[in-house]
Design brief:
By secondary structure, this protein is α/β, with parallel strands linked by helices. It is about 45% helix and about 15% strand. It is built from nine helices and eight strands. The chain has an eight-stranded mixed beta sheet with strand order 1-2-4-3-5-6-7-8, with helices on both faces. Helix 7 links the parallel strand 7 and strand 8. Helix 1 crosses helix 9. The longest helix has 24 residues. The radius of gyration is 18 Å and the shape is globular. The protein starts with 18 loop residues before the first strand and ends with a helix. The relative contact order is 0.15.
Length: about 280
């Protein structure tokens, strides 16, 4: 979580269709393809700071499973140390433009509450703690159910950093395969430019708004230039006009533009996964 936009958003409504099981030692939300459909592969969903419990993340995982015919895993890499949905209300108070002295007054306790909630997330999910968990899960998966299946990764905000790492393909599974075959990320955080872009080797699709406080527009343009200069078939960077950080998962379900932006990000991911699941058969 790198800025206030990482905790801003809206709660979506719906009933998740998946289930929670322990997979490779971690509580994992599992969404399966529709009944009767052949499973094309596996997508591992690495969420934002709201983690496994946010219904938005589960609903999006369900959509990926339904629209790509892949099994989707969303492991709890955070060990329960994620932000609660109540942070949406807290951040609404903090980011509200001051209209009266009362608006200013209520910002003070809201800021302290935000710090109180964010500090454990930042401490328990720092890179030195999270990276071994992420790598172990992918190693274990490649050695078992994904030994002969295509694997995609989906990362949002906090999870986007790991998709970049996995697409750099610096670590191989015991069977010699890459830990993943391709990745998608929307509004990733903690990306170091240009190094992280230059390191990418595996197919990667990126979706980000031009009003993202975490991944600035100049960095985003640089990312697009670097990746698409390598290979426009393997790499794509889509810049969504007006979209802010978190739009692919936490956009307001009551406003036309956020709804359309979220659908665009979802469609980009689905198209990318279907393309590369198909290519993985050859």
């Amino acid at each position: 979580m790198s800025c206030p936009q990482c905790a801003v958003g809206a709660l979506h409504t719906g009933t998740p269709e998946g289930r929670i099981e322990t997979v490779h030692g971690l509580p994992t939300y599992i969404a399966d393809p529709p009944a009767g459909q052949e499973q094309k592969g596996i997508i591992v969903f690495l969420p934002d700071a709201f983690g496994l419990e946010l219904v938005n993340n589960k609903l999006l995982a369900d959509k990926y499973a339904r629209r790509t015919n892949a099994r989707v895993y969303m492991p709890d890499f955070m060990n329960g140390h994620y932000l609660g949905a109540h942070m949406f209300d807290v951040m609404d108070v903090i980011t509200k433009k001051n209209g009266t002295w009362m608006d200013t007054f209520w910002k003070v306790p809201a800021v302290f509450q935000a710090i109180y909630n964010a500090a454990p997330f930042l401490f328990f999910n720092r890179e030195s703690v999270s990276k071994p968990k992420v790598l172990k899960f992918f190693h274990d998966m490649r050695a078992n159910e994904a030994a002969s299946q295509a694997v995609g990764a989906a990362g949002f905000c906090w999870g986007g950093k790991w998709v970049f790492m996995l697409c750099a393909d610096t670590e191989k599974a015991a069977n010699g395969k890459s830990l993943i075959d391709f990745g998608y990320t929307a509004h990733p955080s903690d990306i170091v430019m240009p190094q992280d872009a230059e390191a990418i080797k595996l197919p990667l699709s990126v979706c980000c708004g031009d009003n993202d406080m975490v991944f600035g527009i100049e960095q985003l343009k640089q990312l697009k230039e670097i990746l698409e200069a390598k290979d426009k078939d393997k790499f794509e960077v889509v810049i969504v006009p007006g979209a802010t950080h978190g739009f692919a998962v936490r956009g307001s379900p009551f406003e036309k533009t956020p709804i359309e932006n979220g659908r665009q990000a979802e469609q980009q991911a689905v198209d990318f996964y279907n393309k590369w699941f198909e290519k993985s058969k050859t």
